[in-house]
């Protein structure tokens, strides 16, 4: 008896999960291509707003004085680690939205690819900043630590610049972009 109750619960759970996913798929299928594009643009605006907040945090963590000595390196590493982790999470959210670009709009697919390249570059630069900061903390002499710290700062700034350029592309589309992508961003609820 206990097995049949567990089996029944499993069947009901799977059936409700299937109906939920098919409900969301059918809701998307009933949307017009324009509505799909507007929904995607709104989700991208929301995700990039969160990315901008995270990137602002990493920007504040890269203001260090390399000549102040090695004592500040663990603090630099800790700040970068915290900032890069937040940025990674926000980049994951942006990439997830970019992956959902409506294929019915070639213009949106191209736009998503361009933004995606900048976002991927920001992630790579953030990873490079972390590796260099770790090298600085583990360095055995002041010169090696200074070079690694300078490299960490440079990579962190590159991450910030790439994420900022991605955000600028989206802001331009939000505030006067042309074509179907510009119209979608201009009318999407999350972009105003």
In short:
This protein has 192 residues and is mostly helical. The chain is 83% helix and 0% strand.
Structural notes for this entry:
By secondary structure, this protein is mostly helical. The chain folds into 2 domains: 1-30; 33-191, Nucleotidyltransferases  domain 2 (Four Helix Bundle (Hemerythrin (Met), subunit A), Up-down Bundle). It has helices at residues 2-30, 33-61, 73-99, 106-138, 142-174, 179-187. Helix 3 (73-99) packs antiparallel against helix 4 and helix 5 packs across helix 6. It is elongated, with a radius of gyration of 22 Å.
Write the topology of this structure.
Elements: H1 2-30, H2 33-61, H3 73-99, H4 106-138, H5 142-174, H6 179-187
Helix pairs in contact: 2-3, 2-5, 2-6, 3-4, 4-5, 5-6
Keywords for this structure?
single chain; 192 residues; mainly alpha; Four Helix Bundle (Hemerythrin (Met), subunit A); 6 helices; 0% strand; disordered N terminus
* Low-confidence spans: 1-24
Largest sheet: none
Q: Roughly what fraction of the amino acids lie in strands?
A: under 5%
Number of helices: 6
CATH class designation of the largest domain: Mainly Alpha
Q: Quote the distance from N terminus to C terminus.
A: 57 Å
Order of helices and strands: HHHHHH
Query: Averaging pLDDT over every residue, what do you get?
Result: 77
CATH homolog superfamily of the largest domain: Nucleotidyltransferases  domain 2
Global Rg: 22 Å
């Amino acid at each position: 008896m206990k097995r049949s109750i567990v089996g029944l619960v499993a069947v009901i759970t799977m059936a409700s999960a299937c109906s939920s996913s098919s409900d969301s798929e059918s809701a998307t299928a009933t949307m017009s291509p324009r509505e799909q594009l507007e929904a995607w643009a709104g989700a991208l605006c929301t995700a990039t707003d969160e990315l901008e907040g995270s990137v602002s945090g990493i920007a504040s963590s890269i203001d260090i004085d390399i000549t102040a000595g090695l004592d500040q390196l663990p603090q630099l590493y800790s700040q970068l680690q915290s900032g890069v982790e937040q940025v990674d999470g926000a980049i994951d959210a942006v990439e997830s939205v970019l992956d959902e670009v409506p294929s019915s709009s070639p213009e949106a697919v191209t736009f998503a690819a361009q933004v995606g390249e900048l976002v991927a570059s920001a992630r790579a630069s953030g990873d490079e900043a972390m590796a260099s900061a770790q090298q600085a903390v583990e360095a055995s002499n002041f010169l090696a630590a200074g070079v690694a710290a300078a490299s960490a700062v440079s990579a962190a700034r590159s991450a910030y610049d790439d994420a900022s350029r991605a955000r600028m592309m989206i802001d331009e589309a939000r505030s006067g972009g042309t074509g179907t992508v510009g119209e979608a961003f201009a009318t999407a609820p999350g972009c105003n």
